[in-house]
Amino acid sequence: MENNDIDALIKQYRQITRDDGNEKYAQAQFELGFIYKRLEWQHIFKQQNYGVTICQILPEAN
To answer: What is the reported pTM?
Structure first.
């Protein structure tokens, strides 16, 4: 999954509000947290020159 795809997912999840229903909102928040955590790990690995990409950390992004 490329950065544009990830950005699109983030935008999509951020548009979901509590008005869309508690379960849908909770799921969107969970997914956002998951994406942000994976991006954080990718950044850490890149800093340490492991060369790991988001697709390797987040297999469903392939």
So the answer is: 0.64
